[in-house]
Amino acid sequence: xxxxxxxxxxxxxxxxxxxxxxxxxxxxxxxxxxxxxxxxxxxxxxxxxxxxxxxxxxxxxxxxxxxxxxxxxxxxxxxxxxxxxxxxxxxxxxxxxxxxxxxxxxx
Length: 107
Description:
The protein is mostly beta strands. It has 2 helices and 6 strands. The N and C termini lie far apart (32 Å).
């Protein structure tokens, strides 16, 4: 497998500054390399049905951190862009490869 694309998985956390003001910050919980692919034709049309044409698949080596990722609280950074994580799949539960599906955010 050819893992060339660097990505970061970030988690949203609440933090306080020196004055006691609370703010949300993104903390990197996992960084690695992946092979990035567009959806296949069948997956593309399924995504298009819910207006998610910009969905990408990130295929990477498995890591236990990925199993604990809450898709409601994480985002994926790739090429300077933030993507919403839709699913994290440990392929066949073999702990070898993980597929992360992520959608480009509208900016």
